[in-house]
């Protein structure tokens, strides 16, 4: 039996039980993971267990942090929304007001809002890029600024898997002067005591869990491999494969140290649960302002819903940078829930109706781009505890 560490309010014993069962399943479901719930201004569940490495030689500790892939996007969106709340960034202003080079190839009227809602038609870089460009912020931003959109902006939405981070992050940098990772660290992570990083500092590298690839049966390919199979010929393939991410890249120091605001946030469950728990209530904690209730309401207002132009018709539903609850993303039973899942299984969200923030992080990846059954079982257990 895997030992489960941490604390849990008696109301959430079903969550502890469900978390423990994840480690005992026979489908290689879990190696190391953590789950947390923040409610009414305090941490009511903070659990972890298993191992931080594939060899199961390194126990998952309280301070282990893991790559959460696209769960990072919610944090990135929050940074932009804070600038909008302060009036230094206008969501309906052209991106080119802040980033003049972006106006090239007919993009002069694309509003900032469409960067957050995946409607800008810039879901991938068209020009084939060398592998090393993955960590070259300037090269990718320049390529996006120069190219024409894949579709007429505003006419449909398509998941900007990697470019979301560069597009939103560059606007934040142009407006604020700081990189998105530094903005988040100075404005939110340090004041709130969050152990979450977009760009892991050297002192924290040893705490990073080893990400373990999705188990794939002989003769099968996982979802990301399927999307990448065409090289960069289609927007879908290019979105996940230009620049190419080699196997093992996510466990490299280069990946962990870089700032890739769409995909390489590293942190623990309690920090994400706290951040979303604050958004679920009054928008601030211990004197630290995060986002006002009015702007949180705007953030979770539907902007796009329907067949995704990048994810081969899979339905996606977006607010301002956050994914919203729907049948394929069951963020609990309440319709106002918002957050973001990550490739492999991580997920974090706020439920304003229940007043909770939830987060689950892990290192054993499973198939799927919008969470997987492990996280959804834990979410179900949380609501069973709420009664």
Strand order of the largest sheet: 1-3-2-14-13-12-11
- Largest sheet report: 7 strands, antiparallel
Q: What portion of the residues fall into strands of 2 or more residues? A: 15-25%
Number of strands: 14
Q: What is the typical, i.e. mean, pLDDT?
A: 94
Instruction: Supply the number of helical segments.
Output: 13
List low-confidence stretches: none
Output the structural class.
alpha+beta
End-to-end C-alpha gap: 28 Å
| N-to-C order of helices and strands | EHEEEHHHHHHEHHHEHEEHEEEEEEH
Rg, rounded, reads 19 Å
Instruction: Indicate the percent of residues in helices.
Output: 25-40%
Overall body shape? globular
What report would you give on this structure?
- The protein has 387 residues and is α+β, with helices and mostly antiparallel strands.
- 32% of the residues lie in helices and 16% in strands.
- The protein contains 13 helices and 14 strands.
- It has a seven-stranded antiparallel β-sheet, sandwiched between helices. The chain has a three-stranded antiparallel β-sheet with strand order 4-6-5. A two-stranded antiparallel ribbon has the order 7-8.
- The longest helix is centred in the N-terminal third of the chain and has 15 residues, at 72-86.
- It is globular, with a radius of gyration of 19 Å.
- It starts with a strand and ends with a helix.
